[in-house]
């Protein structure tokens, strides 16, 4: 096994299984990418999601363990009872944190991913209710990373992708089966280690995107 070309965080909730199926059926198993899947899963469903995802991909699908090293061409699934962090390619388990009474595991992991991967961080928001993921993708964009979201018209529950897109921080929006090709093309040409100047520019652009989005929503 080898170090991944990129670590891609995928956030999904209600209706996300159908989107995940279409995504992984169209993702080559040898692209050199590691995927970390963050869902709003009931603790009673422990172990079920990896088993289901193995039907859609030839990549190994593993439930994460504290201290697990991330390898290329592997799908990692967050256990229901923990949130995840990442440091130098190592997964860590965290006790869940609630923001305003709500648990936001996608935001949490995307923020850790942005801090540790800088311009190599990639976040994808799929079907789900609410807005989990929106704060996290801002963190990714502030570190010059890349963000994708499912086209809300194809999502069974459009809340999460719609919130992400209307934030102004999404680079690509498409149906789940189209996202892998966009991801591979992006990685072929665009992954770099950002300079301090690039990071400063990315933060300014993120602020401007949010301002323009707020103006558009209230005009």
List keywords for this structure.
single chain, 219 residues, alpha/beta, Rossmann fold, seven-stranded parallel beta sheet, two-stranded antiparallel sheet, 7 helices, 11 strands
Structure description:
Helix 3 packs parallel to helix 4. With 219 residues, this protein is an alpha/beta fold. The protein contains 7 helices and 11 strands. The strands form 3 sheets. Strands 3-4-2-1-9-10-11 form a 7-stranded parallel β-sheet, sandwiched between helices. A two-stranded antiparallel sheet has the order 5-6. Helix 1 links the parallel strand 1 (6-12) and strand 2 (33-39). It is globular. The longest helix has 22 residues, at 196-217. It has a single domain (6-217), classed as Rossmann fold, CATH 3.40.50.
Question: Summed up, what is this model?
Answer:
The chain is of the alpha/beta class and 219 residues long. It has helices at 16-25, 48-53, 105-117, 134-142, 159-166, 179-190, 196-217, and strands spanning 6-12, 33-39, 61-63, 74-77, 83-87, 90-94, 98-99, 102-103, 122-125, 146-150, 172-174.
């Amino acid at each position: 096994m080898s170090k991944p070309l990129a670590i891609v965080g995928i956030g999904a909730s209600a209706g996300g299984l159908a989107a995940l199926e279409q995504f992984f059926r169209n993702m080559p198993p040898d692209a050199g990418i590691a995927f970390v899947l963050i869902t709003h899963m009931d603790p009673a469903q422990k172990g079920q999601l990896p088993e289901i995802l193995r039907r859609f991909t030839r990549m190994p699908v593993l439930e994460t363990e504290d201290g697990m090293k991330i390898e290329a061409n592997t799908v990692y699934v967050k256990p229901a009872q923990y949130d995840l962090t990442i440091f130098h390619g190592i997964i860590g388990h965290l006790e869940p944190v609630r923001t305003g009474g709500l648990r936001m595991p996608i935001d949490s992991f995307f923020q850790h991913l942005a801090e540790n991967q800088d311009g190599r961080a990639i976040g994808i928001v799929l079907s789900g209710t609410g807005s989990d993921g929106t704060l996290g993708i801002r963190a990714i964009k502030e570190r010059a990373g890349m963000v994708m979201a499912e086209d809300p018209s194809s999502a069974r529950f459009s809340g999460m992708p719609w919130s992400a897109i209307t934030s102004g921080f999404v680079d690509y929006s498409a149906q789940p089966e189209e996202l892998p090709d966009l991801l591979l093309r992006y990685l072929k040409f665009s992954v770099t280690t950002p300079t301090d100047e690039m990071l400063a520019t990315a933060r300014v652009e993120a602020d401007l995107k949010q301002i323009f989005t707020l103006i558009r929503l209230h005009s």
